[in-house]
Design brief:
The complex is a heterodimer of chains A (470) and B (315). Chain A is of the alpha/beta class and 470 residues long. Chain A has 21 helices and twelve strands. In chain A, strands 1, 2, 3, 6, 9, 10 and 11 form a seven-stranded mixed sheet that branches. In chain A, strands 7-8-12 form a three-stranded mixed sheet, covered by helices on one side. In chain A, helix 1 runs antiparallel to helix 2, helix 1 packs parallel to helix 6 and helix 3 packs antiparallel against helix 4. The longest helix of chain A is centred in the first third of the chain and has 21 residues. The two termini of chain A are 29 Å apart. Chain B is an all-alpha fold and 315 residues long. In chain B, strands 1-2 form a two-stranded antiparallel sheet. In chain B, strand 1 and strand 2 form a beta hairpin. In chain B, helix 3 packs across helix 14. The two termini of chain B are 48 Å apart. The chains are: A alpha/beta (470), B mainly alpha (315). Chains A and B meet through helix 1, helix 6, helix 13 and helix 20 of A and helix 2, helix 6, helix 12 and helix 13 of B.
Amino acid sequence: MAAAPGGRLPMDSSSQGMGAVPSQFMEQMMKTTLPSALGRVLLNRRRLLQGGVAAGAALALGGPMGRAMAQDKVNLTVWAWTPKTQDMANLFMQKYPHISVTVENVGQGAPHYVKLRNAVTAGTGLPDVALIEFNSISSFKALNALADLGPHIDPAIAEKFIDWTWTSVTEGDKVYGLPWNTGPMALLYRADIFEQYGLTVPETWDDYAEQAIKLAQAAPGKYLADFAVDSGWTAAVLWQAGWRPFKTEGTNIQIRINDEIAKSWANYWQRLIDAKAVDTKPGWTTEWFAALDDGTYSSWVTAAWAPVLMEQSMTKSFGKWRAAPMPQWQPGGKVASNWGGTVFSAFSTSPQLKEAAEFATFMSTDPEAARFWLTDVFLFPVLDELIEDETLMGHPYEFYGGQAVNTIFAEAEAQVDPSFEFAPFQDYVNSQIEDNFAMAVAGNGTLADAFDRVQDAVVIYARDQGYTVT
Amino acid sequence: MLDAFGPVPLVEFNAVSNTLSGQKPRVIVSKKVAPYVLLLPFLLVFVGFLIVPMGYAFGLSLFKTALVGGTRFVGLENYARAVVDPKFWDGVWLLVRFGLIQMPIMLSLALIFALILDSGMVYARSFFRVSFFLPYAVPAVIATLLWGYLYGPSYGPVAQLATALSLPKPDFFSPGAILGSLANITIWEYTGYNMIIYFAALQAIPGDLEEAAKMDGASALTYALRVKLPMIVPMIVVTVIFSIIGTLQLFSEPYLITNLARSVINSNFTPNYYAYTLAFVAQQYNYSAAISFLLGAVVAVFSYAFMLLANRGGR
């Protein structure tokens, strides 16, 4: 599970694998092997069918007028995995009747990106617009796949966005996407279990470790947390600690994966793992969500979007969760982080960038839409205006037992240091982190060793890809 | 779509021959050409879906595409790198161990079931035949998900049962158990398939041999071991070769179990898994193609080595 989710649905092996394997291979096969015309027909079968229906309707209307109407309508294809996205697209279509939007869910996390990258490589089959996470922007930029939306948007909207989100999607006056939601982080914990075992809500990571040890001793089989091997989460919590593994300038890249910060972070978790104060089961599985639900794990340092997933698969613990600011490395510190969050990007192959930009602008900046996302789907907004809106920030959530958690996330949002850079080949980095962390968790070496191995592998990879590594 | 391809040209040939000669239908296609005309539908598919992709992949393997600097021709450089890649050979070695556990168990079970079914001692023979074969009809993806649930470390039925009996929960995903757990899935999937092959071969043994054996005083067991078994050895050789090929290409099962057993299955667990990761995660399509061809070569070597062994043993 490579990428950090920006609103990923609960997923066990089933949801990821079933669609993924056969279709990826099939698509890849078809793209690489068939004569292009036949390949295009097969690949665009779905779109062809839709087109077929439209064309059929046009013919039925009779003659040139019908055909002209069918041509005037612009069809946008959008790949997104978030819930209720088509509803929002429908709202957009009401306001822009000449644009027809089809939202397709091609998978979430790794399968989504594999399909996008395959389409980029094949040069055909890309959607007009896709949802991508902040950590994937530089990867797609490196492939020259993203369209510059700058000429098609109103430059004034830049002011509306939270600074770091706008910085993440722009380079000079080029705009590679419009931010849609973010993942400011906080500590989610179970009020009932904390009360039962007399745990205090930790303010620092040292407190957190103490509570973990206390709970493991008081209730064998229960853990404060699971150290699930998860590269997205790892990058996010290390972001808070000050880890800045990559700095890319053109074809030069600085790689500092196994620096002091990473090592001391590794030692912190290694101590808890060795003391069996945290569990080490794989994350994101059905079993894992069940363990969060039944109290086996009583906290999760996670992002604002987490309840999107939790709410869908967890029933027993509904209303018993609370949010608190992310634990700090320095007592009294005020540093938070961001995990996931997404932007709407258009691809340079799209012949209708103007309409794509209109769609992205609507999704990102329409206040009604953003309000709906926050109150109904737990997707945290990227607009200053909404974060300053007191009623919205005071909105109570039943999932959190009526707590108005937005104030905590809004504070975290303001504490995100924008200087974090992801690699232009982040998926490779993620797979290396996961392979090597998994080894360490299984008892082959320590997490600190794992960082060394990741550093070596990534440096070799970067050189192999033509970068000058400094 | 391709189904329609077959019959059409033949009909046209007949039509042409009729109108041209105006006489009774005459075959215009000579006997030499006819087989190829009949083979055409197959050849089209064969070339389109096997030869062309392989040619394309081989072409890919001779180039190198980097994020910076684009694509350049590198000749056999990717292969030179692949043959000394420990991640590739780790995967091969793992599958050799896997095969040494899985193949003997699967093929002996298949053989035993086939002999029992063939012996005529079983009622409802076709019911058993179909039931044993059924797992093969379940797609590997579904089979793996199903077993993934059964293996579930906390909430799987086995773990639940263990909890109910106050026994320690078995961990099917521990480093020591994972090969066995995966082997079990593939045994479940493919035993029935091999059984059907054996069963068909056994059915083809003429009945008079059994009479002759009985007259010589052979028991059913002796007859099975001394007469039937030697007669289906060629089939056994075929199934072993199929199994070697299948084993070395193992992908779906570990790929789907990864999320449940992240700490023991990494992204180069088997050679095919490695090729997948290289292509679709690391974007090294060229190197991935080279790894795939190298795997093809390894499969050929193992299969050929087994055939040599089998032939020598047969003589």
